[in-house]
Design brief:
The protein has 451 residues and is an alpha/beta fold. The protein has helices at 17-28, 46-54, 66-69, 86-93, 101-107, 122-133, 166-170, 190-193, 196-204, 223-231, 278-294, 298-307, 335-342, 364-373, 384-393, 406-414, 436-448, and strands at residues 9-13, 32-37, 58-61, 74-77, 98-100, 113-117, 139-143, 159-163, 179-182, 215-219, 236-239, 247-251, 254-258, 265-269, 316-321, 324-328, 350-354, 376-379, 399-401, 420-423.
Length: 451
């Protein structure tokens, strides 16, 4: 990859945050940038498009023209465009290399990356890792978390803490972080990747021999990742189980860390960890391994963990309302994420609000978990009838079906006598909302209005 972009034509696929950041950076380095967007120009984007055009960046909407593609040196893609799309096929025919914005940032800087991937938990782990490292260094969170690393390339920082999705890894052929973390693996994004194994291979590419990270970190509680990690040839760490060396684990109601044989260091008591549930303890263990590897002291790690607050929409405590503890886990857009959340409330009576846009993933484990941990289930949205059918098939009957609005579902949840109300939909939100963020905000606002 060249580092001088003067007069090189670059095609940017999609008017996304990452696309805009890549275009602005490359334009500042002398590249001739063209942004192509299939959707019509939204009125909210008119000002930013005017600024881009005024700086010399060309834009087009509602189609992908041959004119924009012609003689392009390279294309930088937004994460949402699947490999089998017509646009990607056309670029392949024209022999135009396609890379992610993360790949571009990696090639343009000497700042080391800490990359965090996985089906669930990667945002919380990215946030927490960044928070801990900033106790002694200058780090910036970026990537799939919503901050493009290209927007940070001119900043003076020590580390990029980068949430990386399988979409981005698909188009990152040389991305080699200093530390790479794989949180877990469960079925998701199967349509985008064209199969479960393709999804696994996209994640696994982060650890391939030709771009092996300095340190690899795997979840030992995930059987497939434990097996993958055991076969991995580079220097590796595990979290969730105790090994002779290179691990973080729970023992005697505390989290411990080992780097070498015969050593054991207590990091923090579980009672001092503000995050809820075993899945969050996994996030903490992964984060503290990263912090240890870059040189943050144990004292500072424990201090940061105690101070950390869960990111919005991820098992986020809202308030005690009408005697019920209300939690917003709107980010749980698949059954596996909801399962993690449900296990966090063992021993308490729980009403679950679930449903939305169905991803048509298998619900067997979800149903078994509901039977074990949930007193009442409120089902709403487009997926509610399949969820009801699967729950009843598995012997669960405490189901409240809601045919009306999202708010009607929240009302029905408050009518139960349970101690906890948890929004953890196990579905995406596009039947009712623009995304999980809007769903979570509406839930919190409406629940708080009942105080």
């Amino acid at each position: 990859m060249i580092r001088k972009w003067f007069d090189k034509k670059v095609l940017i696929l999609g008017l996304s945050k990452s696309g805009i950041a890549a275009a602005k950076y490359l334009n500042s380095k002398g590249a001739d940038c063209y942004i192509t967007e299939k959707k019509p120009l939204d009125t909210k984007d008119e000002q930013i498009v005017k600024e881009l055009n005024d700086s010399g960046i060309k834009t087009e909407f509602e189609h992908h023209s041959d004119e924009f593609m012609e003689d392009a040196y390279i294309a930088v893609t937004s994460p949402g465009i699947p490999p089998k799309s017509e646009l990607m096929q056309k670029l392949k025919e024209k022999n135009i290399m396609v890379i992610s914005e993360i790949e571009l940032a990696y090639l343009e800087t000497q700042i080391p990356f800490i990359a965090i991937t996985g089906t669930n938990g990667k945002t919380t782990t990215t946030e927490l890792t960044n928070f801990i490292i900033n106790k002694e260094f200058k780090a910036e969170k970026c990537g799939n978390i919503g901050i493009p690393p290209c927007s940070l390339l001119e900043d003076k920082i020590d580390y990029f803490v980068c949430e990386v999705s399988s979409f981005q890894l698909q188009y990152s052929p040389s991305f080699r972080p200093q530390i790479a973390v794989w949180m877990n693996f469960t079925p998701d994004h199967i349509d985008w990747h064209g199969g479960l194994e393709n999804y696994f291979e996209a994640k696994a590419s982060l650890f391939s021999p030709n771009k092996r990270p300095g340190f690899a970190v795997f979840n030992a509680e995930d059987e497939r990742l434990l097996a993958f990690g055991n076969e991995y040839a580079g220097e590796k760490f595990f979290f969730g189980k105790e090994f002779e060396e290179n691990c973080a684990y729970i023992k005697d109601n505390a989290i411990f860390y080992k780097r070498s044989k015969g050593t054991e260091e207590k990091i923090i008591d579980l009672a001092d960890v503000p995050l809820v549930g075993n899945h969050n303890y996994q996030n903490v263990m992964a984060s503290l391994i990263c912090a240890k590897l870059v040189g943050v002291s144990t004292e500072k790690i424990a201090e940061a963990i105690k101070e950390f607050k869960a990111p919005e929409h991820r098992c986020e405590f809202v308030a005690n309302i009408q005697g019920k503890d209300v939690y917003n886990d709107s980010k749980a857009t698949n059954p596996e994420a909801a399962i993690f959340a449900l296990k966090s409330f063992e021993g308490r009576t729980l009403t679950l609000i679930a449903g939305g846009t169905d991803k048509n993933t298998d619900l067997t484990e979800f149903c078994e978990t509901v039977k074990k941990y949930v007193n009442n289930v409120v089902l709403l949205g487009a997926a509610r009838e399949r969820f009801e059918s699967e729950l009843r098939k598995n012997g669960y009957e405490n189901i409240i079906m809601v045919d009306g609005s999202f708010q009607d579902g929240v009302d029905r949840a408050f009518e139960t006598s349970d101690e906890v109300i948890l929004l953890s939909p196990a579905c995406s939100s596009y039947d009712m909302f623009t995304g999980y963020e809007e769903r979570g905000r509406v839930f919190k606002d409406y629940a708080l209005s009942k105080k």
